[in-house]
């Protein structure tokens, strides 16, 4: 019996190892930093305008169209089938990238890559269905770390192969195809989960972390329904006796889950703190993804790959390393994020705006590289803080829901930017002007949060002065006037 219990407690190890292997191979893409030089080079012979205004926008549109249904289907089918679908999409993407030609074929590539990114949610959600709550943090750390390691190794390997070994971009893509194929093979060995976050809950005690295992509970500004008290958990999560007895149809069960998800979103966004952090998340993520999608085009414009040495891989490796470092040091910063968090959002968003303006005005490729490194490090620093500030107030289920919805809103904003600024059916601006627009976009974000943070700091200072004034007068007031002072102070506060 003791051996059986020990074996059962270690069942989390196997799926964690397999999932980490899957994450390593699907992030091991040495060709990715060189996508634009590959498309505009002799292999595909596409123009920069075709790549920028006709091909790359398709990824944004397909990602938006697929994200919400994939988010729900992922939970409904319990993750593994979606990971298999992601593996197939990876293989199709790189087969087409290697052997297909023309604008339409590359648009199909972008569609399948949109499927890849839309199904990425399954990678991080899968593990929560096969491990106990006390191992969430540990296993999440493994999964995120392995992807960062793989991305760094892939970028360094790609740069070394291009610069030192003279390997062609075609063969780099062949290496990537082999790597994502190995990821697809690994996904077959993942155990099929028996539960999921929303549609296939086993039991409240299994699916929800208890008070000592949850990330944390909300503060005073959170709505009552976002607080993780036992009564609300039971009311929201536990099926009613009549539901258990009647064994409702799948359609009615799905509708009930969707209604509950809508209520959860409404309740959580009624918290002003969560609302503002989520607002920054959506706005900044939209701009960040837009910059990442088109940064190679700008680099190729500043230093054409057919006549200049290309160091995209080295820059991406350094950017990934700096992002990991900035994300890591957040946990050691002893700052009152409730008071100074939005000020940080404003300041670092302003720095991001400055780096984008630098990339617009400079003609030096090294200045562009440096601006990109600072831009990505600042964003990763802020998104780590935002993630913590949102997660600390919610259960795992509600955090996953807000994470998905925030990214959906970000994608909607990014799609609007793409349609208006990039797409040939919109303004179809050249790449340099685009980065002027993106810099202005982040400047607006910085302005919003700087103004709000200054207002919060002034308001907090006034409240402290009022509280000190009230305390002093209460200590010296006569008994008869104390009630009047309390009333006045309550009104001021």
UniProtKB/TrEMBL annotation:
Residues 217-249 are annotated as: Disordered. Signal peptide: none annotated. It is found in: Membrane. Coiled coil: none annotated. It comes from the Eukaryota. SUPFAM superfamilies: MFS general substrate transporter. One of its GO terms (cellular component) is plasma membrane. The keyword Magnesium does not apply. It is a multi-pass membrane protein. Keywords: Membrane, Transmembrane, Transmembrane helix, Transport. One of its GO terms (molecular function) is thiamine transmembrane transporter activity. The chain crosses the membrane at residues 12-28, 58-77, 84-105, 111-131, 143-164, 170-192, 274-297, 309-331, 343-363, 369-392, 399-421, 433-458. The keyword ATP-binding does not apply. PANTHER family: FOLATE TRANSPORTER, THIAMINE TRANSPORTER 2. Belongs to the reduced folate carrier (RFC) transporter (TC 2.A.48) family. NCBIfam families: rfc (TIGR00806). This is Thiamine transporter 2. It comes from Otus sunia. The lineage of its organism: Eukaryota, Metazoa, Chordata, Craniata, Vertebrata.
């Amino acid at each position: 019996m003791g051996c059986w219990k020990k074996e059962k407690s270690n069942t989390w190890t196997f799926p964690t190892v397999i999932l980490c292997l899957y994450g390593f191979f699907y992030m091991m893409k040495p060709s990715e930093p060189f996508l634009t030089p590959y498309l505009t080079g002799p292999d595909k012979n596409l123009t920069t305008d075709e790549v920028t205004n006709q091909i790359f926008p398709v990824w944004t549109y397909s990602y938006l169209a697929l994200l919400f249904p994939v988010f729900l289907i992922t939970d409904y089918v319990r993750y593994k089938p979606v990971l298999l679908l992601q593996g197939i999409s990876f293989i199709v993407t790189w087969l087409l990238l290697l052997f297909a030609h023309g604008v339409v074929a590359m648009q199909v590539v972008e569609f399948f890559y949109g499927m890849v990114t839309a199904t990425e949610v399954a990678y991080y959600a899968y593990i929560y269905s096969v491990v106990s709550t006390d191992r969430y943090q540990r296993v999440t750390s493994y999964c995120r770390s392995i992807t960062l390691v793989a991305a760094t190794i892939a970028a360094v390997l790609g740069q070394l192969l291009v610069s030192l070994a003279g390997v062609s971009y075609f063969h780099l893509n062949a290496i990537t195809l082999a790597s994502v194929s190995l990821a697809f093979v690994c996904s077959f060995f993942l155990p099929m989960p028996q539960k999921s976050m929303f549609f296939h809950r086993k039991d409240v005690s299994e699916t929800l972390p208890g008070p000592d295992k949850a990330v944390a509970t909300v503060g005073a500004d959170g709505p009552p329904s976002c607080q993780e008290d036992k009564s609300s958990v039971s009311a929201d999560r536990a099926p009613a006796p009549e539901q258990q007895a009647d064994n409702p149809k799948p359609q009615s069960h799905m509708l009930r889950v969707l209604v509950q998800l809508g209520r959860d979103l409404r309740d959580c966004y009624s918290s002003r703190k969560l609302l503002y952090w989520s607002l920054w998340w959506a706005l900044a993520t939209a701009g960040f993804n837009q910059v990442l999608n088109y940064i190679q085009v700008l680099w190729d414009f500043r230093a054409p790959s057919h006549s200049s040495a290309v160091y995209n891989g080295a820059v991406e490796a350094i950017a990934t390393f700096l992002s990991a470092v900035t994300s890591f040091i957040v946990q050691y910063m002893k700052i009152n994020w409730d008071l100074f968090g939005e000020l940080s959002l404003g300041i670092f968003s302003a720095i991001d705006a400055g780096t984008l303006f630098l990339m617009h005005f400079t003609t030096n490729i090294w200045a562009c590289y440096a601006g990109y490194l600072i831009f990505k490090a600042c964003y990763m620093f802020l998104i780590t803080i935002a993630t913590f500030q949102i997660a600390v107030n919610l259960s795992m289920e509600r955090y996953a829901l807000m994470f998905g919805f925030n990214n959906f809103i970000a994608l909607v904003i990014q799609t609007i930017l793409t349609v208006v600024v990039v797409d040939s059916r919109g303004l179809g601006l050249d790449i340099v002007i685009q980065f002027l627009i993106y810099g202005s976009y982040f400047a607006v974000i910085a302005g919003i949060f700087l103004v709000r943070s200054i207002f919060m700091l002034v308001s907090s200072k006034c409240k402290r002065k009022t509280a000190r004034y009230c305390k002093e007068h209460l200590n010296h007031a006569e008994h008869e006037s104390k009630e009047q002072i309390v009333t006045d102070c309550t009104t001021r506060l």
